Amino acid sequence: MSLYEKAPAKINLCLNVLRKREDGFHEMEMLMTPIDLADRLTFSLLDREISLDSNSSFMPLDERNIVYKTAQLLKDTYQVTQGADIYIEKNIPIAAGLGGGSSDAAATLRGLNRLWNLELSLDELARLGEQIGSDVPFCVYNQTAFVSGRGEIVEPIQPFPKAWVILVKPPKGISSWTVFKDLDISQLLSYEIQAMREAIENHSFKDAVRYAGNALEVQAVKQNPLIIEVKDKMLQFGAETALMSGTGPTVYGLTQNMKKAQRIVNGLKGFCKEVYLVRTL
């Protein structure tokens, strides 16, 4: 018997960094939403061990893999004697700021919860996910949310208004830790996240996009200046807003007009190889 779980990518609609905490993490506030670019995980029962396979050659298939770590954590925490064979169909680019690894970890928690009949709630899975990574709790719930703390406090809100999402991943990936490493919080911009939340709650796409912003952009641009070029081109081609997601380098544009979305995609194809057109979930 096999079970399937989708692991959707996420975009940060608004992101503020408040301060560095004593535990070394940063206190954040974010509005995040899932999009329909997704990895797909398949789970089958094994006697004891955890076994991984994938269509991607870009990631290890052993205990260094986030899916393996997550499965092992769930197994150890609840003394599960059974094992699992997990196939990861990768569609989300790696080191892109789209939460692909975190979403795979969250899908692993949800999938193995069903496969092993653990009957844990999403809240319990999210708490466990905190030990794996800051974006994992959000990905467990898998819906538009206001996220705070280092990512562990997730407050689901109304879904983000339906829109087309144009994603462009510049060639050079960025590891999250490198963006946070030398962060000077006094140099960062701060965005009106509560105003954006209100606009989303009122189902207003037009108002919501006015408040889009990512405080980490200035830091990521030092590593990959293409981010600014892609943003400028997106706006030039007619996107209602253009923003870097997470720690980058992926830039996304939003529009509710399909013809415009198609025009933006065509305009960017000659500029970057990895261009995707998807929708908000």
Automatic annotation (TrEMBL):
Highest taxon, organism lineage: Bacteria
Molecular function terms, GO-annotated: 4-(cytidine 5'-diphospho)-2-C-methyl-D-erythritol kinase activity; ATP binding
Functional description taken from the UniProt entry: Catalyzes the phosphorylation of the position 2 hydroxy group of 4-diphosphocytidyl-2C-methyl-D-erythritol.
Keywords for this protein: ATP-binding, Isoprene biosynthesis, Kinase, Nucleotide-binding, Transferase
Higher taxonomy: Bacteria, Bacillati, Bacillota, Bacilli, Lactobacillales
Any Pfam family the entry gives: GHMP_kinases_N
Pathway note: Isoprenoid biosynthesis; isopentenyl diphosphate biosynthesis via DXP pathway; isopentenyl diphosphate from 1-deoxy-D-xylulose 5-phosphate: step 3/6
Membrane-spanning parts: none
EC number: 2.7.1.148
Active site: K10, D135
Homology family: Belongs to the GHMP kinase family. IspE subfamily.
Span of domain GHMP kinase N-terminal: 65-142
Domain GHMP kinase C-terminal per the UniProt entry, residue ranges: 196-272
GO biological process, one term: terpenoid biosynthetic process
Gene3D superfamilies assigned to the protein according to its UniProt record, in alphabetical order: 3.30.230.10, GHMP kinase, C-terminal domain (3.30.70.890)
Binding site for ATP: P93, I94, A95, A96, G97, L98, G99, G100, G101, S102, S103
Protein name (Swiss-Prot/TrEMBL): 4-diphosphocytidyl-2-C-methyl-D-erythritol kinase
